Amino acid sequence: xxxxxxxxxxxxxxxxxxxxxxxxxxxxxxxxxxxxxxxxxxxxxxxxxxxxxxxxxxxxxxxxxxxxxxxxxxxxxxxxxxxxxxxxxxxxxxxxxxxxxxxxxxxxxxxxxxxxxxxxxxxxxxxxxxxxxxxxxxxxxxxxxxxxxxxxxxxxxxxxxxxxxxxxxxxxxxxxxxxxxxxxxxxxxxxxxxxxxxxxxxxxxxxxxxxxxxxxxxxxxxxxxxxxxxxxxxxxxxxxxxxxxxxxxxxxxxxxxxxxxxxxxxxxxxxxxxxxxxxxxxxxxxxxxxxxxxxxxxxxxxxxxxxxxxxxxxxxxxxxxxxxxxxxxxxxxxxxxxxxxxxxxxxxxxxxxxxxxxxxxxxxxxxxxxxxxxxxxxxxxxxxxxxxxxxxxxxxxxxxxxxxxxxxxxxxxxxxxxxxxxxxxxxxxxxxxxxxxxxxxxxxxxxxxxxxxxxxxxxxxxxxxxxxxxxxxxxxxxxxxxxxxxxxxxxxxxxxxxxxxxxxxxxxxxxxxxxxxxxxxxxxxxxxxxxxxxxxxxxxxxxxxxxxxxxxxxxxxxxxxxxxxxxxxxxxxxxxxxxxxxxxxxxxxxxxxxxxxxxxxxxxxxxxxxxxxxxxxxxxxxxxxxxxxxxxxxxxxxxxxxxxxxxxxxxxxxxxxxxxxxxxxxxxxxxxxxxxxxxxxxxxxxxxxxxxxxxxxxxxxxxxxxxxxxxxxxxxxxxxxxxxxxxxxxxxxxxxxxxxxxxxxxxxxxxxxxxxxxxxxxxxxxxxxxxxxxxxxxxxxxxxxxxxx
Length: 789
Fold this sequence. Notes:
- Helix content is 52%, strand content 17%.
- The chain has 26 helices and 25 strands.
- Helix 5 crosses helix 9 (289-306).
- The N and C termini lie far apart (76 Å).
- The chain crosses the membrane at residues 34-63, 75-94, 259-281, 288-306, 312-328, 335-352, 387-408, 414-440, 483-504.
């Protein structure tokens, strides 16, 4: 036997050649997937001619480089990449042409009134708005009648109709009618938007497989119907993506803690469900190719159960990659499988190239496949292998997705790895028990409820982790969404992926860093100089909504409106050290003023709750009453005359006194019924106007002639619909506008801001300054301090 010393350089080269060839083969499919993705992005963001030219020029450039290098394999790879990019581009163009030039699209551009015959392709989803509750559902239109003509088509539309649509099952063939409109730019795959849709008339019931899937979904809900509300909502969300009953506050906590993937259909769901079926099959001595058949049937069943929407098909593809990764030589096979899944999905649905969900699924799967094994092996040198893997998987997925998540949410979760680690032991049992409860419940309801109880216990822990994690002082870090900020974050993530295997190999480095991370997220960091001494009014930055606080004394604040997000208003009150709320005023019941109510009530002693007399919209009214009752208070109408709450004297001056009444459901009426307050604190007079509109403003001008205040809360986020003479007549030194950055309403109006500024009023906005504080000056005036500007 020859020794190493006897081996020639040629022998070494021969030994290395298979490895180099294997590496090139491993990289070939990801490169092809990247090319397909580039073709999809070109189709979405470039004109057709420009997209074709870009793909052609890029392909020819790469082909020229490959030919110069003189490697036939590279030439073949470039040709294949060019072919795939062109294929995805062509698929996108053909689909866009078929939809955009269909008779339905033509009728939508004309704003025609039409009648449809079509099949429901998505579950109806409630849409809450200030203008009344509606239901949204996607419809595959087979026949359209418009402008006196009948057309046979096969194009998708989005239907907005009344709540009668909520009971229609997926797969049903229905007739309906309404007015067509052109969908916005974010719905490029739709031929039209049907507004004011009439109640559907079912022509044909869903096919057998849809009825079976619907029965299982209903059985899953029934198996946990006896459990607390969070568990009733989370089990269906975890098993089949049915998140319709999920509490918005809990949903926000899931986003903050990086657990949102548990409430949506993801590859993890499929991996758990099909993996469980494979385990059962092995117990039943199923072997060989029959196991493949079980897996295929399980995947098909999961898709039917979770619905055949693009997000579900994407999840099924990524879950299949996860299953492949569990087998022998899994890492290499999974890498190739992920690339194949990306190519196939983009060829079938080119618009996925611009889908945030598709990007996140691909990045998370790639992180788990490519990064997690190395991190696990590094930590396994000083940790049990199971614990190392439990830490590596969510960590790798989180790092891979962080730049995209930050671009979408403006936040970087600092607790995502920890929360995912804490819930990982119960995700599998919850999913399996929830599915088993639904299946068994079809035969025996009591046994189904027993299994559902076990699933409920598991998701109860998940909900507790989400709520606790979101309440940590630094659960998430605000991050800019501009190109520079995201480039810096991406560079940090790349550096982390390179350094992680080295750092994680040493307990002496990893443990201190972990301790520092825990301290940073759990110990409140001081904000020097905030709140400023002697502050009288705070306007919280809660996005597109209102939340204001009047300083009622140490640890106490009169809160006016709660904004749209519980976490945002809760954080603002924490920063102001408000522990008691002697009075909470909800000026009206629109979501941007009341949806954050839980953030005010949670953990704080609350006295009175005042609301407007117009009980509209009804669903929001019911939510406010229920949440207030849970906190031990009953909403009432404002007291007549002036009332004192600590250091605050407040008087409701609008609407006119009267009993509670139901509203018509239109936004303007509810806005104009906003509670308007005149408050005084620390010698500063404040006018708080809610969203009152010009008719109400004119009535106030007549009722309160000569009103003079120091601070004006500009009505309705600075909307252009104002009674400007009245706003100017109050001679405010300072005007505050609570408004969300880059909102779609054009708030605040430039005309309104200019008019106030020209009159000598200083205007401050939360979208530019963050939280705002009004502080008295020694000369009898006021100044405004900004926390974020």
